Amino acid sequence: MKKLALLLVAALGLPACAEMSGAQKGALVGAGTGAAAGAIIGNQVKGNRPGHAGTGAIIGALGGAAAGALIGDAMEQKKTAPAQPGGQLQPVPPPGQPAAGPPPPTQASVTVPGQYAGDPTRGQLINGTPFLLKIYMDVDPTRVSSAPYLTMNPTDVLPVNLDVGAHRVVAIATRDTQFGPRTVGRLDRPLRVEVRGSGWELRFTEGDFR
After folding, report:
1. How many alpha carbons lie under 13 Å from residue 15 in its C-beta half-sphere?
2. Ramachandran bin of 86, using left for φ above 0, alpha for ψ from -120 to 50, beta for the remaining angles
């Protein structure tokens, strides 16, 4: 029994070497512990016959070494694995793919107040008649079969944008009757948008269609 005790002490003292891995330390500790336990069990078998203590020590050493190596290796891997807050392991990104960074900052749009204030191309049409007006811009409705540029009900005021330069405005006034719409008159007049102006306006009156 004294020899077994010395064997156990020697096995437990060996893992103190800094160069040993966790698996090697676990194997030595397991071998020493298993040998001591096997010797004690073997010594109690069959009436304390000689030889059973040695056999038990060999069997215990082999089994303890294998179990200790597995336990030591598992503990060493757990110590070296990177951890996240909360105790969970942090996944390692696959090779060739950079880690995701923060999204790029967004840029605010900038508008200039009054950027088009006094724009000469901005104007309006005013229907000062009791008639329905069909307006054609730069188109002769008698030569080209096309829909009107816009239609204005009585007293309508509509914003219209026209480029700088000369334009032609054709307006056809109609009135609804029990026999359907009937033409009241036709207005054909030029309109010029001046670049030095601050906008334009065209008002239709009942006298334009007499």
Report:
1. 21
2. left
pLDDT in tens, 96-155: 666 666 666 655 555 555 566 789 999 999 999 999 999 999 988 887 677 888 999 999
3-class DSSP state of 73:
helix
What contacts 86, CB < 8 A, 6 or more positions away?
Answer: none
Type of residue numbered 172: I
Q: Is the Cβ–Cβ distance between 132 and 156 less than 8 Å?
A: no
d(CA 202, CA 205): 10
Mean pLDDT estimate for the chain: 72
Burial class (CB in 10 A: 0-12, 13-18, 19+), 63: middle
In what helix (H) or strand (E) does residue 201 lie, and over which residues does it extend?
strand 200-205
Q: How far apart are CA 73 and CA 27, in angstroms?
A: 10
pTM of structure: 0.45
Q: How far apart are CA 187 and CA 210, in angstroms?
A: 9
Query: Domain-by-domain residue ranges, the chain?
Result: 2-12+20-80, 122-209
- Count of C-beta atoms within a 10 Å radius of residue 36: 23
Q: Does domain 122-209 have CATH number 1.20.120?
A: no
